[in-house]
Amino acid sequence: MKRLLYSALVALVVVMMSACSIDTVYHRYSHTSVSGWEKNDTLKFYVPRLRQGGVFAQQLDVRINGAYPFTAATLIVKQRIVPGNAVLTDTVNCTFSKPDGTRLTRGISYYQYSFPIAKPDLREGDSLVVSIYHDMKRDMLPGISDVGLHICRVSYLHDRLYK
Q1: CATH number of the domain where residue 116 is located
Q2: Average pLDDT over every residue of 4-12
Q3: Residue 107 has what pLDDT?
Q4: Which top-level group of life is the source organism from (predicted)?
Q5: Under a CB-based contact definition with an 8 Å cutoff, are residues 133 and 92 in contact?
Q6: Which of 5, 47, 111, 142 could form a disulfide with 36, with the two C-beta atoms 3.0–4.6 Å apart?
């Protein structure tokens, strides 16, 4: 009886894991200046027209090096949906280390972090213009080497069955 229950549980987990998948539709990085990321230096990402609509999971990826002097950063992410010009704005509080300086990820000379941002409901043919800038008191922010945008369409089993 236990063996049958265990087998049923394993089968259920396998079905649930295969029921949804994540399809990456956009993943790019933009480099910042070696001397530092200036406050008025907005990084722009142009997401091409989508072939399929749906709900999209997004994350902001940040790479820092040992020269970054703080434990966190505040980044502003503005997304303009084209057509329609709707604008979504996120303030992302990126925590990189504990107050004692211990990094929250592993790395040798570079450390990579990912932070979730808004999940827009987009339609087929929509595109995005995403602008990212920092909102720190310092005008020049050293130690942030790259900022990236990763967008995935979350599709469910019924999408595949009822196409």
Answers
A1: 2.60.120
A2: 46
A3: 83
A4: Bacteria
A5: no
A6: 142
